[in-house]
Amino acid sequence: MSRSGYIEDIDIDHWALIKWRGQVAAAIRGKRGQRLLLDLISALDSLPEKVLIAEELINADGDYCALGAVGKLRGVKMDRLDPEDAETVADAFDIAEQLAREIVYINDEHGSYDETPQERWQRVRTWAMANIRPVPIEE
Fold first, then answer.
1. Which partner from 23, 49, 100, 119 sits 20 to 30 angstroms from 43, CA to CA?
2. What pTM was estimated for this model as a whole?
3. For the chain, what are the domain ranges?
4. Non-local CB neighbours of 60 within 8 Å, separated by 6+ positions
């Protein structure tokens, strides 16, 4: 099983999948999700090297995954977080567990098997930008 908790070879319960995807979409659209996406874009843009790692929040070289980059921006104490524990990670970042799992999936598993860390950075940033909701214009 992956860090996201998503697995491929299961008998699909279509209704459970529909509900899960709805929860993910709601978490992305909500205030906390939108705040996280804006912070994610800022965090990615502020990285000195435009690379993202997989499987951990931060590595020994000081490289980050998507949530790790947000953690750096927000000052989250990541040394105390188990990157495999989606519930605790979600609490630390003030987001729904569904969104934490989705971002981990996008970061770790959504790309091609031979994707470079630079390509991962670009793909994750593109995904985040595509999920930002426009701010309504007040009249």
1. 23
2. 0.85
3. 14-130
4. none
